[in-house]
Amino acid sequence: MSKHDYKELGLTEEQVLNMYYFMLLARKLDERFWLLNRAGKIPFVISCQGQEAAQVGATFALDKTIDYIAPYYRDLGCVLVFGQTPTDIMMSAFAKPGDPNSHGRQMPGHFGGRKYRILSGSSPVTTQFPHAVGAALAAKMRGEKSVAYTSTGEGSSNQGDFHEAANFAAVHKLPVIFYVENNGYAISVPLDKQLGNHNTADRAVGYGFPGHSIDGNDVLECYKYTKEAAERARNGEGPTLIEARTYRLVPHSSDDDDRAYRSREEVEAAKQKDPILTFAQYLRDKGVLTPEKEQEMNDSIAKAVNEATDEAEKAPFFDPEDALTHVYEER
Amino acid sequence: MAIKSYIEAVTDALREEMERDESIFILGEDVGVRGGVFRATAGLIEKFGEERVIDSPLSESAIVGVSIGAAMVGMRPVAEMQFADFIFPAYNQIVSEAARIRYRTKSDWTVPMTIRAPYGGGIHGGLYHSQSVEALFHHVPGIKIVMPSTPYDVKGLLKAAIRDNDPVLFFEHKRCYRLIKGEVPDEDYTIEIGKGDVKREGTDVTVITYGLMVHYTLEAAEVLEKEGISTHVIDLRSIKPLDKELIIEGAKKTGKVLIVHEDGKFGGVGGEISAIIAEEALFDLDAPIQRLAGPDVPGMPYSPPQEKFYMLNPTKIADAIRKLAEF
Ligand SMILES: Cc1ncc(C[n+]2csc(CCOP(=O)(O)OP(=O)(O)O)c2C)c(N)n1
Ligand SMILES: [Mg+2]
């Protein structure tokens, strides 16, 4: 349960309901992916499940009209907040035209889209970190007030690009937010084997900017810290590193079997702290999420997910030869 | 027209482009106050300020990665790798990112970025300050690779690279920097990337080459002319895209082809050129295609006699042309 009072954070009833809506939408889309995958309709799933609070809380603190995000493959919650629609998401799952990320060229979860201010991401992890720094550098050079947000997993935080990007951003005091979703595993490898210091936010001291390790299951906490980081960035005070501690509720991907490396008890215990359940309870306790509103929201999300699935399933693929286009500028 | 050195042509192109377009900026190690370890960016920080001529941390992946991010949102960065030998920490950013961002978004996102890198040997640089690295990028779709030999070509091609909407690797031969001088027009001009140039017309043997080896080949051709051997010299100028037309035309013209590059032979650019000729002009040939290239060892030794042994020179090239002429 969140220890924060949403009103004290300057959030309205409508805004917190909206946060919940995006968390739930992300979850429901994700659950649908798994059904489609197991039915043999889509080849691959990589999930946000368990990390929706970390994602939605952070991106709610940004300004989607001027900021850029460079998310990683689990960040379904982030891209929904930045404007991607269920149809966009399903088109991507099916690799059909209408996929704004890559037009069917990349696996799902490789987000992007200029009109959504989402930088294109790839599979080699953490390569997006320097890109976000570059976007922040451009903003600073042009005197724009925009912030660049980039995220990755705790395992991926061990890549050289993490360090190179953080140091560069520190030197130039760039308006960038580095966000680590620490879910305890990098595929099968647990924290103990991944990090000498389990707290990745501690690294910020070494770079010379603030770092915070926060409860990634608390959407309001994620909002609060990202909001502060964004304000710092906009005020020219430079980068912030945030580690959102969370848990991945499902296997790494549709090709993984997590029974090989973690106990069912551990997963069950984590499910008790599922950020969607706890936030729903918080909102009910506050009298914000009434039974009518909840019903309405569940219905509208179910409808949106169903319609998007149908539309994407029915859509044609690109022609095979389309694979030969857009290697270089086409004039 | 003025006589300029190869490196002056680099500096002039950078300065003129930066004057023309505010979105162009320079990022690299020691490029600012020091003006670059070779002084290719000399005077630019004084003119454009430290905002546009950025002394970056010693961090190649960041230099390229940050440039990519800036390019995606509308800037035109010119990143400098201090030596081509040190481009490898940025290899992932170049190959996995810069080269693929257009393709993986169907041009929704693009990377109009130039990466300049001094390369090549014969400067007592040993294993890690002498390398030719082009073959490691030549295979990669989505990037362009320019390797000019003259001040005129440097200026026109660097301007074209900066204005190009795709990532361009611009390799400058270190030995050419102060050794090679030539006429450069005062007015603005560009040279199309992917177009080679016949640097000498000839009828007996066609040499296809690029970079410093163009000059060595031209020296060899002078010597051979006195022996009655006429050499046709093609300077590719860009190795990606390759000027297929000029290559095939050159092969057909003399029927004898020698490909020369300083880089190692195995898996080098010469293999691709010879395959193109074999596919398109086999029956016009009068001799097997020959390649003269660096030895396939991991690097150029520092020991002066060994460095000399490693490097090609006009004599070695003349010998190879002569052998082919006599075939
Ligand atoms: C450079 C690189 N190495 C390996 C992989 C394969 N890989 C994909 S995700 C992953 C684990 C990432 O774990 P973490 O960063 O903790 O993120 P999480 O999946 O837990 O959210 C690995 C090893 C990759 N994509 N890129
Ligand atoms: Mg993880």
UniProtKB/TrEMBL annotation, chain A:
EC main group: oxidoreductase
Cofactor: thiamine diphosphate
EC number: 1.2.4.4
InterPro entries: Alpha-ketoacid_DH_E1_comp (IPR050771), DH_E1 (IPR001017), THDP-binding (IPR029061)
Domain Dehydrogenase E1 component residue range list: 22-320
Alphabetized UniProt keyword annotations: Oxidoreductase, Thiamine pyrophosphate
Catalytic activity: N(6)-[(R)-lipoyl]-L-lysyl-[protein] + 3-methyl-2-oxobutanoate + H(+) = N(6)-[(R)-S(8)-2-methylpropanoyldihydrolipoyl]-L-lysyl-[protein] + CO2
The UniProt record lists the keyword Oxidoreductase: yes
Similarity field: Belongs to the BCKDHA family.
Function, in words: The branched-chain alpha-keto dehydrogenase complex catalyzes the overall conversion of alpha-keto acids to acyl-CoA and CO(2). It contains multiple copies of three enzymatic components: branched-chain alpha-keto acid decarboxylase (E1), lipoamide acyltransferase (E2) and lipoamide dehydrogenase (E3).
The protein's name: 2-oxoisovalerate dehydrogenase subunit alpha
Automatic annotation (TrEMBL), chain B:
Pfam families per UniProt: Transket_pyr (PF02779), Transketolase_C (PF02780)
PANTHER family: PYRUVATE DEHYDROGENASE E1 COMPONENT BETA SUBUNIT (PTHR43257), PYRUVATE DEHYDROGENASE E1 COMPONENT SUBUNIT BETA (PTHR43257:SF2)
UniProt xrefs under InterPro entries: THDP-binding, Transketo_C/PFOR_II, Transketolase-like_Pyr-bd, Transketolase_C
Record bears the keyword Oxidoreductase: yes
SMART domains: Transket_pyr
Descriptive protein name: Alpha-ketoacid dehydrogenase subunit beta
UniProt keyword terms in alphabetical order: Oxidoreductase, Thiamine pyrophosphate
Cofactor: thiamine diphosphate
Alphabetized CDD domains for the sequence: TPP_PYR_E1-PDHc-beta_like (cd07036)
UniProt xrefs under SUPFAM superfamilies: Thiamin diphosphate-binding fold (THDP-binding), TK C-terminal domain-like
Manganese as UniProt keyword: no
Domain (Transketolase-like pyrimidine-binding): residue spans on this chain: 4-179
